[in-house]
Predict the structure.
Amino acid sequence: MSATDNLRRIQERIGAELFRKDRQTRYLVKRSEEEQALEAVFDRRTLFTLYSMINRGLLDYLNGVVRSGKEARVYWGRKDERDVAVKIFYTVTTSFKNRTIYITGDRRFQGVPTSGRTMVYEWAKKEFKNLTLARDAGVPVPEPLHVEKNVIMMEFIGDYGIPAPTLAELGSGTQKDYNAVLVSMKKLYRHAGLVHGDLSEFNIFKYKGKIMLFDFASAVERAHPMADELLVRDIKNINRFFSKVGVSTLKAEQILKRVKST
């Protein structure tokens, strides 16, 4: 069998299953140029990456999509009878056009083209590294398991393929939840040396009564020139949400001092 035939069979095996599962979870909508571009998540190289992971025993199989965003889709997968989340970043960099503030000034992107696959691959590696740093610092985040090109595999937060609800989906939060988020922000800043940079009720799970942060691709190091501004924005987002749901909050200046204090 030629290499071309083998690659075609790889695409048929994985691509057909991914598209079948994806169609089951989406409404039929009129195709637009943007939607066609976002489907680049399933391009040939991505399919080959997924096949390679399965072939090497890193992943058993994928089920349907559980979350879909502007930059990536997250699938429910299985590995050794364990649920895993497989996050696949779109390989079209138009998905990252609003992420310039996180890339400019980040030493990890020095010398990396701001367009093309290389940037997307570095973005995925950055999230994996950020998750690792956060977890090592004691911040409750999904356990990072593997990163390869534009694919990240991590712990699945939820049960039986149903992701845990976010605070936004719950539309509620407690004083205990608020305090837990502030503690996590401090650990992230002081011990991991990171600022989440995009923190809000939309990327905080509440699972089994506990708070867990996710979506760390935008997190920046404390030395980043925009770190303080992003930290203040994170604080304001958290205060806005918890105030809205009736939780007593601290002033932003107090939180900033608390997060930065030793």
About this structure: Residues 26-35 have pLDDT under 50 and may be disordered. The CA atoms of residues 144 and 262 lie 27 Å apart. The first strand starts at residue 61 and ends at 68. The two ends are 62 Å apart (CA to CA).
